[in-house]
Amino acid sequence: MKVVGVGCGPGMLTAEAARVIAGASLVYGSARAIALARDAISPGCEVHEITDYRSLRSLPDDAVVLSTGDPMLAGLGYLPGEVVPGISSLQVAFARLKIPLAKAAVVSAHGKDHSRAVAEAGGEVLAGRVVFLIADPAFDVGAFAAALPPRIRLAVCENLGYPEERIAVGTAAEPPAPRDDLFVVVAGEFQDPGTGAARPAAALSFFRRS
Ligand SMILES: C[S@@+](CC[C@H](N)C(=O)[O-])C[C@H]1O[C@@H](n2cnc3c(N)ncnc32)[C@H](O)[C@@H]1O
User: Which CATH number is 90-207's, of 3.30.950.10, 2.30.30.230, 3.30.450.20, 3.30.70.890?
Assistant: First the structure.
């Protein structure tokens, strides 16, 4: 089996990923992963939307499993077989915010205990890291913000790479609220790329990718 990262949004499939997908006769993925890889899937390829993630370990050797973003970032990279990397939501969020990846501390709250993730993220922020928090639709950004010092900058990055992408930058005192289910949260001391302010400003700034 091969686990192929398809990027976190449209147009982010690498040439290597497209080549592996084009050579596959059996493909599995979530509806979103299949949509992102659709143009690379060969006619006649058997495509299955994943309904039971527990059954993936027993797929045949020639199966290609699509994983959104990069398989090794809270993705399907735990499955047996080769992993083909993809462009992750971490890379895209940090590129939009112009934060060096060397400052990142990754915390996953996706399908996990949110209060533990908030406590872990708070510790990383206090240690001077910029937290990249993988959320799920139920994640409460307000509760996370309340656990941070008020002047810490906090950004909600939604639908990265999609036409409806939205990056909202605020502070822990005035956190932006997500408007959609697909979002990550970035928190720490970083410049607001919208205003260039080195320290968090009181007002929120919003900008869109051009
Ligand atoms: C199961 S994790 C998979 C992450 C993926 N492997 C990656 O590399 O980005 C799903 C979570 O990743 C984040 N995510 C993935 N794609 C995103 C996107 N295009 N925009 C914003 N957040 C995204 C969201 O927090 C979502 O709930």
Answer: 3.30.950.10
